[in-house]
Amino acid sequence: MNLQELKPQVKEVWRLSLPAILTQITTIAMQYIDSAMVGALGANASASIGLVSSSTWLLNGVTHAVSAGFSVQVAHHIGGENEKKARDVVRHGLITAFIVSSLLCLLGLGLSGPLPALLGGDPAILANSTAYFMMFALMLPFSQLNSLTSTFLQCSGDMVTPSILNAVMCGLDVLFNSIFIPRFGVMGAGMGTTLACATVSLLMAWRCYFCSKSLRFRREKCHFDPEILRKALKIGAPLAVQEVAMNSAMVAATRIIAPLGPVSIAANSFAVTAESLCYMPGYGIGSAATTLVGRSVGAGNVEQARRYGNICTTMGAAFMTLTGLLMMVFCPFVFRLLTPDPAVRELAAQVLRIELLAEPLFAISIVAAGALRGLGDTFVPSLMNLGSIWVVRIGLALVLVGWLGLPGMWIAMASELCVRGLLMLYRLRTSKFYEKFKESGAEMGA
């Protein structure tokens, strides 16, 4: 296929990616805001959030897996022009997500007390870590609702609404943080983020369930369909297991870092926050890849699905290479915004520059995984990700951190991201799910 024939598809990828990237920017802006406002309170305050951040990623990962299990089905049905079936999936997804997120909320509240000590945190930061994690746990049902409804809207083709509402959430986060942090400190950051997320998640749900042309609730019969749950489980369960295992590895990494002290914990947290600005194009394009590949296979056009996967992966690698180069130059200025502590700033810049070398392959791992989700191919990629993070990252970290300190952890991280990117690229090229869709139409994973 020549460039002229690819042009419409590249434009379509860009049309869906841009709003998704803007959504990622607003989400990351909230992380920057929280980090900067808490960073002004000192290294201990930053370390108290950094200590439990990997645990928050773990629980959030489960909510995203639930969303993926249902949203991929929505994309397939929209592509197959079966909007009634898409709405059935939306209803089943809402009930399931409410149950799962409520259980996660209770689990988080129960863990908030002992968790910081179990992670090996310094006694000076334990109380703040507990308070922050408790507020995060209370936010989980709203975070799940926001994730679910925004992915439903994206899969229906509405990429603009999630972008606008997440930008609103960013503004509300600034407002609420400025009210609560001066009075409640670290806990106030959690309170501000929770309130902002709750407000926007309800607006997102209203937009999805009452305003969306294809997904809004109608007076129509909807019976319990175990097949919808079976497919959601087939897609979402490997992702949930992957997220739990991968973020458990992050928790293990935090446990490895914790003995290095508050400066290293804070520097690690700020470096992760700063690096998130680099990978936001990857996750935005990955969301577009899930939508476009899913809708293409739903319409029975497997070759188009393959092309969209390749186009998205190439674009993601190009964008993240560019953002990585920019961050390599400007990261010292970024850390000046995030923390007044010169020791934290210097160490954070040092370790971040190590990881930025892996950005191109990190991009491939993100976007290729998004394309594979659109196919419903989640089990083998999950196994690949698990092997990569536990064997390569944690294995190298155990060897290098004692020798090199925090830079050893980031060398291990960069090495693992390269391995993961190569594995995801291989899977995207060799996935048998393309052939399965050729044989069985739009029957998912049959």
What report would you give on this structure?
- The chain has one domain (3-440).
- It is 86% helix and 0% strand.
- The protein has 15 helices and no strands.
- The chain is mainly α and 446 residues long.
- Helix 9 crosses helix 12 (359-375).
- It has helices spanning 3-39, 43-79, 83-111, 115-118, 126-155, 160-184, 186-211, 226-257, 262-298, 302-338, 342-356, 359-375, 379-404, 406-430, 433-440.
- The model is unreliable at 441-446 (pLDDT under 50).
Query: Helix segment count?
Result: 15
Total strand count, please? 0
The largest β sheet comes out as: none
SSE sequence, one letter per element: HHHHHHHHHHHHHHH
Protein structure class: mainly alpha
Low-confidence parts lasting 5 or more residues at pLDDT below 50? 441-446
The chain-level mean pLDDT equals 85
Helical fraction: over 70%
**Separation, N- and C-terminal Cα atoms:** 29 Å
In percent terms, what proportion of residues is strand? under 5%
Count of distinct structural domains: 1
Rg for CA atoms: 21 Å
